[in-house]
Amino acid sequence: MSASSKSQRRAAIEDVRNRKCEECGNHTMDGTQVEGLAVLQCTMCGALGGDDDLIARIELIREARDVGIDIEVYPLVLALNAIKGVRCRESSGGDDFTRVPPYVRFGIGDNRVVHLENLANTIELQRRDLSHTWRIQVKIARDGVCFELAPNIEMHDIASHTISMLQGDLFLLATAVKRNQDLSWWKV
Ligand SMILES: [Zn+2]
Q1: What's the CA-to-centroid distance between 43 and ligand 1, angstroms?
Q2: Structural domain tally of the chain?
Q3: Which residue range forms the structural domain that includes residue 9?
Q4: Which pLDDT score is estimated for 64?
Q5: Over the stretch 143-176, which tens digit does the pLDDT of each residue have?
Q6: How far is the CA of 20 from the centre of ligand 1 (A)?
Q7: Is residue 43, in this structure, part of any structural domain at all?
Q8: For the chain, which end, N or C, has fewer CB atoms within 10 Å of the first or last residue's CB respectively?
Q9: d(CA 116, ligand 1 centre) in Å
Q10: Are 31 and 50 contained in the same domain?
């Protein structure tokens, strides 16, 4: 390595270390792990810095924990709740240990049953990218009828890697539900 590239490299490292904290103006940000993600943290006030996507992910993880929803299913819950008339009641991100596949149970307000068609179309359009088939079932709960979006899978078919594949599906479905709400075929 040449002297100049060495000094460039050192300058780049210094630049990262000396990033100014946006919260308190302190000039030392140290590398750290938060929620398993590598970010910078202010040595004075603890504010996080670094990659914006990672910061957003950390905020989402914390928000999900605050409201008591599994992070794996939280983006899908947000995407569903953004549909007018749809309200998620119960959900799970899936559990490897107990072999519970992920699911979301939601209610639909008056005259909004058209969203079942929107969601069924979304699942159908996404079908090839999903690891399993997903379906929407009608469920009778104490507080009335609700709908359950879940993978079509029996407990004895759940292997050790199945839950993480289904969690990948949750992410794809969240992205698709969020995106499709803005498309022309989505009925309102
Ligand atoms: Zn600070």
Answers
A1: 7
A2: 2
A3: 3-66
A4: 98
A5: 788 999 999 999 889 988 999 999 999 999 999 9
A6: 8
A7: yes
A8: N
A9: 47
A10: yes
Ligand 1 midpoint to CA 29 (Å)? 8
In a domain, 186, yes or no: no
Q: Do both 76 and 134 map to the same domain? A: yes
Taking alpha carbons only, the member of 103, 135, 118 closest to residue 176 is: 118
Per mean pLDDT, which range of 12-26, 75-89, 110-124 is the poorest? Answer: 12-26
Mean pLDDT of 81-98: 94
Q: Which pTM value belongs to this model?
A: 0.81
Joined tokens for residue 182 = 């803005």
With a CB cutoff of 8 Å and minimum separation 6, the contacts of 72 are 93, 94, 102, 167, 170, 171
CA of 47 from ligand 1 middle (Å) equals 5
* Within a domain: 188: no
Quote the DSSP letter at residue 95. B
Question: Could you give the percent of the chain with pLDDT greater than 70?
Answer: 91
CATH label of the domain that carries residue 21: 2.20.25
Cα 49 to middle of ligand 1, angstroms: 9
Please identify, among 49, 66, 83, the residue that sits at the C-terminal boundary of a domain.
66
